[in-house]
Each structure stands twice: as structure tokens, then as C-alpha cells.
Amino acid sequence: MNEVQINTTFRKYQEKDRDQVINLWTDVFQETTTYNAPDAMLDEKLAIDDLVFVADSDTGILGACMAGYDGHRGWLYAIAVSPAQRLTGVGHSLVDFALASLGALGCHKVNLQIRGSNPNAAGFYNKLGFQVEDRISMGLTLPRQTTEIQIDIR
Fold this sequence. Notes:
single chain, alpha+beta, Aminopeptidase, five-stranded mixed beta sheet, 5 strands, 27% helix
């Protein structure tokens, strides 16, 4: 592994990063669904909290990821590094920064999911200390809500 560029800074996302982060996620996550469109995903995340992190250098954004923390567990999402910067330590340092940020919030355990179409990522995360756990990951796509939610409990 090469070393991270000397002038790379790991920090929280700023609005000036928007276009570069969206372009990075668009390039890296080409098989995404409409509800995971990078611009919508970023807007929806920032409406809730600011746990979006970037690897910034003199040449621009090299990597980005989102994190979540619900008071019990943390999650890492949409971790992406520019293909030209892979194997340089940028991804490792970006994940370390996100983990330290979650730890500062009181988080003690962090989860992530890897798409079945990206099995090589497991080796990367394993080197960072993540382990496969005996869990079943399940999901449900909810319809978009455009009005207030009303639930009738009887």
C-alpha cells in the first residue's frame, strides 16, 4: 500500500464539496437504485445530521462516506474512494476518521454492509478489523411519502 498524499485532509463534508462528492459516488456506485441516487442520498442525509466525511486534497475530493449513529450502534455507508487513489491509504484513513468521529459521539460498535456484487470489499474491511458476523441482513423499500403520515391504530 502506498501512503496517503501529504496534503490530504480528513474532515466533515462542506457544501462546497457537493458536486465532487456526487460525482465520486456516481462514478463508484454505478449500479445504484433511484432511492440511492447520490444527490438525493446526500440531501436526505444532511436533512438529518452532518455525519458525512471527505478525504480532501489539493486536487479535490479523493474519498467520501456517510455515517450514522442512533445512540446504540453506528453504521458506515457509501464509502467511496476515487479509483486513482485506491491502495494509497485514503480509504483506510477515511474509515479511521469516520470511526473516530463515531467514537467521539459515544458509539461503541459500528456495522456496515457490503453489496453481494462487491465481494472484494470484504478483504479491505477485514484488514481494518471488521469481521463477518452471524446475521441476516433484511431490507424493505418504503414508498416515498409526499404527505403527512396518518396511522389508524385500532
